[in-house]
Amino acid sequence: MKAVIQRVSRASVMVGGETVGEIGPGLAVLLGVAEGDTQADAEYLVSKIINLRIFADGEGKFNLSLKDLCRELLVVSQFTLIADTRKGRRPSFVEAAQPEEADRLYNLFIRLCREEGVQAATGKFGAMMMLEIHNDGPVTIILDSRDRLNPRQ
After folding, report:
1. Which of 19, 38, 39, 80 is catalytic?
2. Which run of H or E residues covers position 67?
3. 29 within some domain
């Protein structure tokens, strides 16, 4: 499971010209589910994202998390994060989870965030969406749940 997280001053997502999710200050999360991902991957990313200290304290240091500040999440499914571009010029998405499983894990991710007390707005799984993201910083971080299995060098 991969996530691109962006610290935002505000963000929204539209489907068919209608706003389906919007937040004020917080994090926009683009979430891609890979074949073989499990609940453990979702749990790892939820914990990492909501507790990652990427918000400045009074001294300007990254010491505060989304959860510390009671900020919001905008979570949008994005299978293209699982693209394999090693061969040729057209990305391959064969490593992306099947839609039914990806939808299940996407919704689990959202539920886990909410169970942690985080307000989470969402896009619409599988839909073509327009995102408006106002980056703050900018601060953009890429997370991969499989990194937890590799010891730090």
Report:
1. 80
2. helix 66-69
3. yes
7-21, 52-66, 139-153, range with the lowest pLDDT: 139-153
Number of domains in the chain: 1
Q: Is 79 a catalytic residue?
A: yes
Catalytic residue among 79, 98, 140, 153, which?
79
**Which pLDDT value is given to residue 152?**
79
**153 pLDDT exceeds 90?**
no
In a domain, residue 153? The reply is no
Structure tokens belonging to residue 30: 């683009």
Domain that holds residue 47: 2-148
In sequence order, which residues have a C-beta less than 8 Å from that of residue 128 and are 6 or more positions away?
15
**Model-wide pTM > 0.70:** yes
Instruction: Give the N- to C-terminal CA distance of the chain in Å, as an integer.
Output: 21
Side chain identity at residue 109, one-letter code: F
Secondary-structure percent of the chain, ordered helix, strand, coil, rounded to 5: 30, 40, 30
